[in-house]
Amino acid sequence: MPPEPVIDVAGLVKHYHASDGTVVRAVNGVSLTVEAGETVGLLGANGAGKTTTLRMLATLLRPTSGTARVAGCDIRDDPVGVRRSLGYVSATTGVPDRLSAREIFMSFGQLHGLPAETLPERVAVLLNQLDLTGCADRPAGRLSSGQRQRISLGRALVHDPPALVLDEPTNALDVIGARDLLDLLAQLRSEGHAILLSTHRLHEIESRCDRFVIIHGGGVVATGTRESLVADWITGGDGDLEGAFFAAIGTCAAHPEPQP
How far apart are CA 45 and CA 213, in angstroms? Predict the structure, then answer.
């Protein structure tokens, strides 16, 4: 039998009740998988349900129904196991200004229960991998946005989780910083990590993801490789990922599902 996906999302639903009593369907039955050594891009406009989906996967929100598994751990039944198996990064994940990268990595390594005798070596490897060695002991408040985002990523990687979930990780970065971060993610993918990546910058990831999942109105409307999405959604198959994305969500906007 084929191995179980590292990330396996099955029918995730998140409903909120608005102040007027109506039900807001933020996420409505999202299912997707990410294998080891695979990068999957999660695409959608603002309000499509991307961040809510990723926050449920990271056990920051409890789903209304449905579930997901990360490295075999269920987000409902074993949230602690999920957190041990997953690194979560978002564009809004801040780092303490007064702490250095080394202090942050050491603190999070201790929180994850890494052995005291091997933790300094693990931190040194991360600092080198993230090109932070030269500023490892400088307070994060004195670093650039790119360096701070690398610290955020390193904090998620310190326990070497098999799965990474990243929500708009390049949002605060310039072109060079974004490229460096995506290059690092490519390295992590080659080492066997399963990566689920959400971004609005389609041009950055068009050639970097193995597959894409497009969501609109809280549900999955298309999934596949870049080539299959272009072939399915653009007449003659002559176009790019952005064209396929707009064609997919445009079709759904023209034929919306009825609200309950």
Answer: 12
Asked whether 48 and 218 are in contact (CB, 8 A), the reply is yes
Structure tokens at 73: 């751990």
Contact 218, 25 (CB under 8 A): yes
Q: Residue 215 and residue 223: Cα distance in Å, rounded?
A: 9
User: What letter represents residue 41's amino acid?
Assistant: G
Amino acid at 174: D
Question: End-to-end CA distance of the chain, in Å?
Answer: 39
Domains of the chain: 17-95+162-254 (3.40.50.300)
Which is it for the CA torsion 213, 201, 160, 191, positive or negative?
positive
256: its two tokens? 């919306």
pLDDT tens digits for range 218-236: 999 999 999 999 999 988 7
Please tell me the predicted confidence (pLDDT) of residue 18.
Answer: 82
Ranges assigned E (strand) in the chain: 7-17, 23-34, 39-43, 65-70, 73-74, 86-90, 163-167, 194-198, 211-216, 219-224
The answer to whether 170 touches 199, Cβ cutoff 8 Å, is: yes
HSE-up of residue 192 (Cα within 13 Å, Cβ side):
4
User: Distance between CA 44 and CA 46 in Å, rounded?
Assistant: 7
Angle at 67 between CA 64 and CA 72, to 5 degrees: 155
Q: Is 69 helix (H, G, I), strand (E, B) or coil?
A: strand
As a whole number of angstroms, the longest Cα–Cα distance in the chain is 59
- 92 contacts: CB under 8 Å, gap ≥ 6: none
Q: Is it the case that residue 52 has pLDDT exceeding 50?
A: yes
